[in-house]
Amino acid sequence: MEAGFAAGNRLGFERFQTVLLFGNNIGIGGTPAGTRNLLRNIHPLLSDSGRVLVTSLDVTQTSNPTHRAYHESNIAAGLPKGQISMRLEYRGRCGPWINWLHPQPQELEAFAQDTGWRIELVRTYDTGVYAAVLGRA
Q: What range defines the domain where residue 6 resides?
């Protein structure tokens, strides 16, 4: 990722103070390994005091039997409860299936610890939505 920072720097960018991963975008890594890779790759983009702000969804905070069955099928397949497969449709055209991960707060904390970050704050809400602030470890 350092090459990515170097390219941005040629365009006049300095290191950023904040990276926003709102709207469940921490899930773009698709899997635990992909999420760890995403967090590692953010390091060179941020200043020494930089932060990552995250909003996501703890999918276990549901009473919906369909959702709970999906979680159980994930567990049986050796996948995290919050890993989903989806594809986007626009004007009748469907894209390829992709994985998306909705990590639970404790999973996010483990991913952070594995990649040189620490959780500074987590706020959870009754809806299952949560917000987190990650700082350098």
A: 2-136
Tens of pLDDT, residue by residue over 10-27, are 666 788 999 999 999 999
35-71 residue pLDDT tens: 999 999 999 999 999 999 999 999 999 999 999 999 9
Strand pairing category for 46-57 and 117-124: unpaired
Whether the CB-CB separation of 39 and 112 falls below 8 Å is answered with yes
Q: What is the pTM of this model?
A: 0.86
Q: In total, how many domains does the chain have? A: 1
Which residue in 29, 49, 24 sits closest to 39, CA to CA? 29
Whether 106 and 37 have beta carbons less than 8 Å apart is answered as no
Q: What is the CATH number of the domain that holds 41?
A: 3.40.50.150
Residue 10 tokens, joined: 């040629």
